[in-house]
Amino acid sequence: MAFSRIALVSTLALAAGAAVAQSDSILVQSTTSTANSGLYDYLLPAFESESGITVNVVAVGTGQAIENARNCDGDVLLVHAKPAEEAFVADGYGTARTDLMYNDFVIVGPQGDPAGIAGTEDAQAALSAIAEAEAPFASRGDDSGTHKKELSLWSGTEVDPASGSGAWYRETGSGMGATLNAGIGMGAYVMTDRATWISFENKQDYEIAVEGDEDLFNQYGVIPVSPEACPSVNAEGAQAFADWLVSEAGQDAIAAYEVDGQQLFFPNAPREGTDG
Amino acid sequence: MREATESLQDIAEALRLAVSLVLSGDADLVEIVVLSLRVSLTATAVACAIGLPLGALVAVARFPGRGTALVVMNALMGLPPVVVGLIVYLHLSRAGPLGFLGLLYTPTAMIVAQTILIAPIVAALSRQVLEDLHDEYAAQFRSLCLTRAQVVGALLWDGRYALMTVALAGFGRAVAEVGAVMIVGGNIDHLTRVMTTAIALETSKGALPMALALGIVLMALALGVNAAVHGLRASAVRHAYV
Amino acid sequence: MSDAALPFLGGRAGAAASPRAPLLPMRARGLTLRRGGVAVVDRIDLDLGLRGCTAILGPNGAGKSLLLRLLHGLEPPEAGAVTWNGAPASREVTARQALVFQTPVLLRRSVGANLDFVLRARRRDRGLRAALLDRVGLGDKADRPARLLSGGEKQRLALARALATGPDVLFLDEPTASLDPGSVLMIERIVREEAERGTRLVIVTHDVAQARRLADDVVFLHRGRVIEHAPTDTFFAAPAAEAARDFLAGRIVL
């Protein structure tokens, strides 16, 4: 009968599907900025041709990436939330955390600049001014690295943004790109990593209002997932990828990646022999 | 006013992009389209293999709790994709009960999620179609003293053209959803990226014309599948087989 | 007509060869069925003998079709019972009978596939198909979609399908109502052939002339009750009941 034939075909298709993720490949649980900015598209071919290891990337918020890695659903973690990363290693889920590269956060806003913060270098003062003016501010609100950073900045001000939640303080609960789209749509200030901003294509009349504060420094780290916590991981492949990223070749490649003539990420892995 | 004009320009740009993407036979686009079709068509086939006999059985059988079963079946038609995605993720995750299968972030996981999403749709809609058909046939079938299996088989075969529309409804839902495949597939380039997750990605990059262009291609695809089924049905109508 | 001349009615030969008990005579006692509080079949007693063709006659709404369905076992009576040669109604009994409905319900398939379906479902020889189609004059239409046939052709196909089950009893519910004369002629010819071969026939009709042509005995039904049951000659020569006399005279009977 026709239906048993369909069932057979489906079974074959299922079997074929299961065969896909075999061979020598690793899965990176990554923050979105590295993926959305195009860094992986630039980096991975070099590593893949050199090592023969296919790298698959799942790009989600840092919070979700760490959670997925804790579920052993990834071989390498590449995110930007140092305290959470150190906790991940301390809890035994990662073998070791290595500084990989940095860039910085910026606060972007509409040309009209309703809070009058354009050109400010003090990020916390800028945030206070936004709260004072009750100018709309779009927050990730998704427990991502960027969100954590933003909350740490607020905590140094007099303002509790939660009091403006739903009014001028708007938590999108979405990724960086979606939050930028939403923020720009409603004329709100948005804090974003510079890499995402530079490669973002829907800027409209938005410009960088605040940049250059030391507090806006954004450090990325790389952690192979521990085979002791997760026996299913491709530990060798993960270590090879992490080693390559912090090697001279990897660091040079990171430094060489540019969008519109601007460098997006600045490699700062410890020089060989200096790390513990 | 300026913004409104820009938005319209975006749409025009998207149309132009869509056409050039299709005409150039862009390899990435082809890969994504093929995977979308493979995942959603397979999910539709599996959902039909489960949902059609189930729908037929509920259509012809009278049993205690049938009313409740109908309500549950109809309610499950509205399963939110993201919830299905989460449930499948929790099962297929390495930390989950089926983690040993290593299916998370594979097309198979996406097929499983979409199957769960649309099997209730196929079951509930086919139940409706086949119950109407059974009303017409019931007395004749009782007179012929057919077994239940013979009745179900005859209903499924005679309802085949109406059931194609049911399958189409399931396929449409599967190919258009993003919530479930994003979570269990991970939107991995060259592995689990399908039309909808690619659109979500382009949107998050702010590449709205590209996102819209992909959306246009997706709609064209859906239109093509619908037209094909419509063509089959039209010939069936000429034979009074519908 | 001998069995050899009609090989496609192998059911009869099989019945003779098997130890299967004969189905007839039939006895119905106190059959009652209510619809919307009204007894549409009202305490009916009826006997059917071993052979022949019985016509159930009566005005519209007399309960003829429902009586047929009760006898065939399509629905259970609210009161009363039907026994076949002493055995109670059962699925096995129904399976040895066939019913041709007033409006034929044909499968959404070709003419031939409609017969194939029944032959396969009832585990009968698929080779019977061609002879059955020839017999109802549809031999050249096996591949036509069944639901595109004319009204008369549809009813002939329904009759062929009923015969395909090899029934001991054949019920026909207004089988020729509003059909073309050619189809009426063909259906009546087959009814007579079947009666001669020993199939027990029960035909519901409101066509008085048809009853006269086909039936050995007539059951006259009025308001859910059997008013008269008599041999055809007796019934038409001198109907005992007033309603039957009015009906035969062409007067409107309510």
From TrEMBL, chain A:
The keyword Signal applies. Residues 137-157 are annotated as: Disordered. Residues 19-248 form the PBP domain. Pfam families: PBP_like_2. Keywords: Signal. Residues 140-151 have a biased composition (Basic and acidic residues). Residues 1-21 form the signal peptide. PANTHER family: EXTRACELLULAR TUNGSTATE BINDING PROTEIN. This is PBP superfamily domain protein. It comes from Roseivivax jejudonensis.
UniProtKB/TrEMBL annotation, chain B:
It is a multi-pass membrane protein. This is Sulfate transport system permease protein CysW. NCBIfam families: ABC_perm1. Its main location: membrane. Residues 33-229 form the ABC transmembrane type-1 domain. It is found in: Cell membrane. The keyword Cell cycle does not apply.
Automatic annotation (TrEMBL), chain C:
Its EC number is 3.6.3.-. Keywords: ATP-binding, Hydrolase, Nucleotide-binding, Transport. Residues 26-248 form the ABC transporter domain. Pfam families: ABC_tran. The keyword Cytoplasm does not apply. It comes from Roseivivax jejudonensis. InterPro entries: AAA+_ATPase, ABC_transporter-like_ATP-bd, ABC_transporter-like_CS, P-loop_NTPase. This is L-cystine import ATP-binding protein TcyC. The lineage of its organism: Bacteria, Pseudomonadati, Pseudomonadota, Alphaproteobacteria, Rhodobacterales. It is an enzyme of class 3 (hydrolase).
